[in-house]
């Protein structure tokens, strides 16, 4: 979702996230229903230090601009009206390199000794989100089992959520899937009640224009 917001709305900010949610709430598929809550799922950014395996240099993820921006974003989202922030975590799971691509470089690969010269810049950290999918599944189960909701508007294109989608429908809830113009696997379209493929830009463009935002100062 973040990539779509950045591309279509100009940046990933709490304000743009709130605008997108407001546009979804105005969509004819869900506008007639009372809002229960808005659940926002993300992983807390990786903040610990990691040593580079070749240089031994300590990489302080917690002091990067990306870390500070993500921490600030989550704090702002948590304060938005009717929002519930659900956080997983980011973990460092080692390092990776495109070894096949490196082997194609004759200057880096000695075929006689099968030796590959690897530089520090060839290695990229492997950072993964954990716990987010589990929290989404648990919330959907709780909301539908306790009959708190009749309709779930879900913003994703990730087929990992198909089991949770199936569960919600088995429990009697309708599931409306907003993909933000992202392609989805057939099993996702088969397991939702309504698929809305509109982009973030096209959804937000349907919102009424705020007169204060277009009125020149002094008028």
Strand content: 15-25%
Distance between the amino and carboxyl termini:
38 Å
Strand order of the largest sheet: 1-4-7
Helix coverage percent of residues? Answer: 25-40%
- The H-and-E topology, N to C, reads as HHEEEHEHEEEHEHEHEHH
* Arithmetic mean pLDDT: 90
Radius of gyration: 22 Å
How many β-strand runs? Answer: 10
List low-confidence stretches.
Answer: 213-219
Biggest β-sheet description: 3 strands, mixed
| Net shape | elongated
Q: Work out the helix count.
A: 9
Structural class by SSE content: alpha/beta
Key features?
single chain; alpha/beta; 3-stranded mixed β-sheet; disordered C terminus
Overall description:
This protein is an alpha/beta fold and 219 residues long. It has helices spanning 2-9, 14-26, 65-78, 99-103, 132-145, 162-170, 186-190, 200-204, 211-214; strands at residues 38-44, 49-51, 58-60, 83-96, 109-110, 115-116, 124-130, 151-155, 174-178, 194-196. The strands form four sheets. The protein has a three-stranded mixed β-sheet with strand order 1-4-7. A three-stranded parallel β-sheet has the order 8-9-10, covered by helices on one side. The two termini are 38 Å apart. The model is unreliable at 213-219 (pLDDT under 50).
Outline of this structure?
A hairpin with a 6-residue loop joins strand 2 (49-51) and strand 3. The protein has helices at residues 2-9, 14-26, 65-78, 99-103, 132-145, 162-170, 186-190, 200-204, 211-214; strands at 38-44, 49-51, 58-60, 83-96, 109-110, 115-116, 124-130, 151-155, 174-178, 194-196.
